[in-house]
Amino acid sequence: MKYIIDKDKLFLEVTNENIESIINSTKRIIKKCDKNNLELVINYNDKNINESKINDLKMIQTAINIKDKEKRYNYIYDTVCNILDKRINEENYCEFENDVCIRFRKENPNHKNGCCEWKGRGKCKYLIKSECTMKSCMACKLFTCSFLYKTKKIRQKVDDYVLLKYFFNRNQKYILECSFWTPKEIVMKRLINNSMKPKE
Ligand code: SF4
Ligand code: SF4
To answer: CB under 6 Å to ligand 2: residues?
Structure first.
């Protein structure tokens, strides 16, 4: 990856050929910019760059240029939650009908509320009148059950999302994936407490 540092900025020239390798080098760029307090500046020198890659790189650039750790994590958390909400709304993969999801229509039609209600754990206290009143639990949004994978090949992992893949270490990814039914404020505290630098 070639870059130029001038004063307090790190400049990257991006083309369709190098954008993938630049995204794969995100951890190096974070390290360089954070260590030297550099602003990341990106020039796109090619009209044919894949649009979704540009979106990924723009999110990476925004996160890198937020120097306060808590604010950076906030941006990442909210941005990824929005992406996950958009996917759920567009694809409607759980296909709820009268509060019963596609999996339980097949396995146990008396089970309402999908994974917001679970044997031994009861119903999540944030589910009121069939609606999630918390709206910000990333682990719930990320979760896709084995039934969805078997029947529709739908599976989501933290590493599917560049902001989670490159900005968090293994412990933090575990927290993001497993903090079900948990408000954002609590997850944010856990992320900050586990915020050793991600390994290259
Ligand atoms: S992830 Fe699976 S169990 Fe949970 S609501 Fe969707 S289909 Fe139902
Ligand atoms: S927090 Fe999670 S489990 Fe609780 S209502 Fe919302 S989506 Fe369902």
So the answer is: 116, 124, 126-127, 132, 134, 137, 140, 181
